[in-house]
């Protein structure tokens, strides 16, 4: 939990930072306990119009104010930004959360000067609707209380899963970080098929998307294992069985396995 005495900061005010800020406020954190920085005054102004938080162009002001801050800058800018705030971070020792893909904690610790309570995580885009899934990894410097504080930030936009090994974040990237795009592709295909069958775009999209939502909820709400739920729908000799047979003949499971391996391997490449 975030106490009334704690301030949460964001360095960078892009889409994911905005989603987290929105989630925190929706979950009851007063806007005056949030501060964000962005070098672009226009982006800062846009953020304050959306949320009545503190906004600055000075990254050090965030470090000097926040008990925990989120590094929400592009990976290619990370070293420059982090090294510019190193002295302030070393002086105050706040908890630091990085949501940047492909940048290991070892590099972040080096740029920050070392011995920092650092959490690296991989949220995904459904966080914008507070329906995200985030894997988190904490360095040894992070205390139990600090882990709870960090978790409360990401839990404001969805579910969270702590990982024992940083390398597991590469798998998280492949499954949930990139995962929404896989389902969007399936929905595109279902929508196109529906249109070919004569349905309107709106009807095909609504039916496909609601079906995906309902199927996911059945798994998350404990209605059964995915394989069990699939079996329940697949009546012998019926339409579903025929469709599943077609998908399996085309090796859907192997296609997905290869895709996830490719995504995981690319995440590993980006971290080196």
Strand content: 5-15%
Q: What is the succession of H and E elements?
A: EHEHEHEHHEHEEHEHHHHHH
* CATH fold descriptor of the largest domain: Rossmann fold
Large-scale geometry: elongated
Mean pLDDT: 95
Number of helices: 13
The largest β sheet comes out as: 8 strands, mixed
Could you name the ranges where pLDDT drops below 50 across 5 or more consecutive residues?
none
What percentage of residues falls in helices of 4 or more residues?
40-55%
Q: What is the spatial order of strands in the main beta sheet?
A: 3-2-1-4-5-6-7-8
How would you explain this protein's 3D organization?
The protein is an alpha/beta fold and 272 residues long. Helix content is 55%, strand content 13%. The protein is elongated, with a radius of gyration of 21 Å.
């Amino acid at each position: 939990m975030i106490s009334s005495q704690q301030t949460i900061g964001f360095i960078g005010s892009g889409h994911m930072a905005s989603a987290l800020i929105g989630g925190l406020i929706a979950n009851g954190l007063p806007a005056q306990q949030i501060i964000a920085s962005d070098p672009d005054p226009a982006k800062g102004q846009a953020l304050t119009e959306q949320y009545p938080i503190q906004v600055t162009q000075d990254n050090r002001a965030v470090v000097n104010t926040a008990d925990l801050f989120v590094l929400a800058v592009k990976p290619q800018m990370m070293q420059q930004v982090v090294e510019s705030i190193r002295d302030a971070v070393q002086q105050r020792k706040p908890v630091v959360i990085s949501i940047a893909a492909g940048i290991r904690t070892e590099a972040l610790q080096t740029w920050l000067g070392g011995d920092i309570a650092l959490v690296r995580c991989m949220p995904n885009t459904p966080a914008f609707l507070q329906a995200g899934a985030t894997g988190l990894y904490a360095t040894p410097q992070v205390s139990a209380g600090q882990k709870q504080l960090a978790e409360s930030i990401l839990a404001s936009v969805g579910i969270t899963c702590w990982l024992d090994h940083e390398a597991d974040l590469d798998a998280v990237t492949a499954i949930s970080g990139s995962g929404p795009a896989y389902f969007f592709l399936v929905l595109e295909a279902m929508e196109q098929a529906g249109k070919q069958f004569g349905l309107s775009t709106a009807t095909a999209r609504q039916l496909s998307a609601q079906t995906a939502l309902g199927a996911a909820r059945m798994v998350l709400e404990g209605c059964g294992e995915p394989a069990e739920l699939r079996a329940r729908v697949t009546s012998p000799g019926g339409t579903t069985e025929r469709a599943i047979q077609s998908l399996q003949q085309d090796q859907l499971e192997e296609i997905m396995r290869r895709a996830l391996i490719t995504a995981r391997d690319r995440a590993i490449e980006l971290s080196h």
